[in-house]
Amino acid sequence: MSYTDEQICTHSFDTPEKHHGAVSPPIYQTSLFAFETFEAFTKAQSAERENYVYTRGVNPTTEILERKLAMLERGERCKCFGSGMGAISSVFLSLLQKGDHVLFVNTIYGPTQELVEHLNRFGIEHSFTGEEVEADVQPNTKLIYVESPGTMTMKVIDLKSISTIAKQHGIITAIDNTWSTPIFQKPLTLGFDLSIHSLTKYIGGHSDVVGGAVIGDEELIDQISKYGFQLNGSVMSPHDASLILRGLRTLPIRMKQHEYNTLQMINYLKTKEEITSIHHPSLQTDNPIVKEQMTGFSGLLSFELKEGAFEKVALFINQMKVFKIGVSWGGYESLINAPIKRDNASNLEAQGISPGLVRLSIGLEGPDLLIADLEKGFQAVQTIKSY
Ligand code: PLP
């Protein structure tokens, strides 16, 4: 039987007797599971990734979350981790070996890049590419790693064509699908092997938990569970799994609201002369891929302030009262941030990121207060012009 995303997010899939009818499944806050006999223990331990033996293995609460995430992504299996970076590093550590090459497509989350730079010392190479993916495949490319949309300029990449190229060359494909969530994009249905999430963002949704997940077929997830999860040990706490399950119950409805609010904010931003461009996939109407592979748009967007520099960006951001200044995104609350620092403008430009780029994560407050906030920012930067 196939289920809709709304059903997957809300249905318990358990018999009512299983948890005494509890509508919210219990938190198995335990590090280990005890056995009646030594024989039963050794039998369970011989297949530790299928049996409840130790929470750095399988835990019943986390397993419910894993089942739901696998269903949402239309994948066979999911493994959850203590953070998005735990999930990403587990993929790299499990699938790569000395002499392998990783090809990155699009702008990539900074710490993911730092991780692979670190892996250089273990003989793992990497390079970056834009649209010309096939031309940049190397004989030793083992993994093509994509973010689409990217999370700075929100550029969308053609996932089907990448997975087709990768299959022709026998290369594994992985995507960081955090921006869209499985509600708006299902990369496994477009031929990708692995879909990765920082659950810290929309899926958790309440900015009170850090977590990660990888979804793919049985074989790849088993390999990742063994080497990346059990041996690397980035474990999700069962309590955190329960918080993320709570987030999941409202994910489809929250995503619709984030989208609605964001489109209204974009309409407002379009009226501002102080902005040179706005970045959000909803505006990439000339790109047919956007419509083909995405069914909606989340609330992370960016815009470029005219003649943006550190002082101007700081003045703008410092006017905010409702937008919180901070890292991360995808929660119920609106956030503002910018990649500019006092000394990195040329680095940003080399990556195609404007020094005046301001990033907004549009929350669930509704546009009125947010627009009032931004209005103050735009008024303040006008004063800079007249100096
Ligand atoms: N991927 C993207 C696109 C992110 O923005 C982040 C965090 O900001 C991560 C992965 C890492 O996730 P976590 O912070 O849960 O480790």
Automatic annotation (TrEMBL):
- Give cofactor(s), names only: pyridoxal 5'-phosphate
Instruction: List the EC numbers from the record.
Output: 4.4.1.2
Q: Show the InterPro entries listed in the entry.
A: Cys/Met-Metab_PyrdxlP-dep_enz (IPR000277), Cys_met_metab_PP (IPR054542), PyrdxlP-dep_Trfase (IPR015424), PyrdxlP-dep_Trfase_major (IPR015421), PyrdxlP-dep_Trfase_small (IPR015422)
Q: Which SUPFAM superfamilies does the UniProt record give?
A: PLP-dependent transferases (SSF53383)
Highest taxon of the source?
Bacteria
Q: Does the keyword Transmembrane helix apply?
A: no
GO molecular-function terms, A-Z: homocysteine desulfhydrase activity; methionine gamma-lyase activity; pyridoxal phosphate binding
Q: Which GO terms describe its biological process?
A: transsulfuration
One Pfam family cited in the UniProt record for this chain: Cys_Met_Meta_PP
Q: Which reaction does it catalyse?
A: L-methionine + H2O = methanethiol + 2-oxobutanoate + NH4(+); L-homocysteine + H2O = 2-oxobutanoate + hydrogen sulfide + NH4(+) + H(+)
Recite the UniProt keywords alphabetically: Pyridoxal phosphate
- What Gene Ontology cellular component terms go with this record? cytoplasm
| Residues carrying N6-(pyridoxal phosphate)lysine | K201
**Signal sequence residues:** none
The family line of this record is: Belongs to the trans-sulfuration enzymes family.
Tell me what this protein is called: homocysteine desulfhydrase
Q: Which organism is it from?
A: Oceanobacillus picturae
Whichever gene encodes this chain, its name is: mdeA_2
